[in-house]
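Hi everyone, sorry if this is the wrong subforum. Our group has a chain we'd like a structural model of before ordering constructs, and none of us has done structure prediction before. Sequence below.
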Amino acid sequence: MAGKAMVVVLGLLVGAGHAAFAQEAPAVQSVTDPKDLRELGKFEEMMSVSGVARQHKDILYRELAMEAYNNGDQERALKMFMRAASYADKPSQAALANMYWDGIGTPVDRPRAYAWMDLAASRGYNRFIAKREYYWGELTEAERAQALRVGQEIYTEYDDKIALHRLEMELEFTRRNVVGSHVGFVGPGNVYGFTHTMNTGHASTGLARPGGSGTSTSASEQDLGLPIANLTELYRPSLWKINDYARFKDVQWQERVESKPTVDVGDLQNVAAPPAK
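Answer:
Right subforum, don't worry. Here is the predicted structure as tokens:
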């Protein structure tokens, strides 16, 4: 994923028709612990390494959704946001809410939109809480009753307890596949590059060399060039341990989005990515 931040501000979350509402969302003063801020920097640095973000299914499917949306394929975007949502990705859940609310890639379904925004707000993201309350205020009494019924259906499959466990299984599989140890020992070594998988646990892959040295270099290793990450840095808990990972996604949202005075309304975009030239 290009750029160091994986969090996205989606103009899709508020929609062009809700620009005035976007301006009402207040900035939240940062209260993040300095240690967490330092770890956030490491977290974002490692997530910017080519291929790493896409080993996280929540980010992979969110990116695919954004690509589809930008290419005008709204139905595929809806499906990909749904997959990202199944891995507890709050921005994707909020994107689904807006798509159902405005009928983007799907018929308008305001009760379902409310239920998705309610789930998106469940970890305390202030902008999603505000949007959820806006939705509730717009619903009729009949729609509110329907929203509560639909919400039970959605929470049964997508509640964080279920979705984070689903993501945990994926992250553990990837981490152990690379580390090559069921107890999680990483040890010294360098990562030289990534393909679509991260089988970097053995020198024969040409992607990682334990100890960072060796007497011979394969052609694939030569092609990969200089090391791009240290194994110990790459496999820090904030990237692969589910509780740490979820917490630092929340910290990132707080720092990169909630602390900003407004949500940008427009195309999907990376928060910290440099502007296009």
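For your construct planning: The radius of gyration is 20 Å. Strands lie at 8-9, 189-191, 208-210, 229-230, 269-270.
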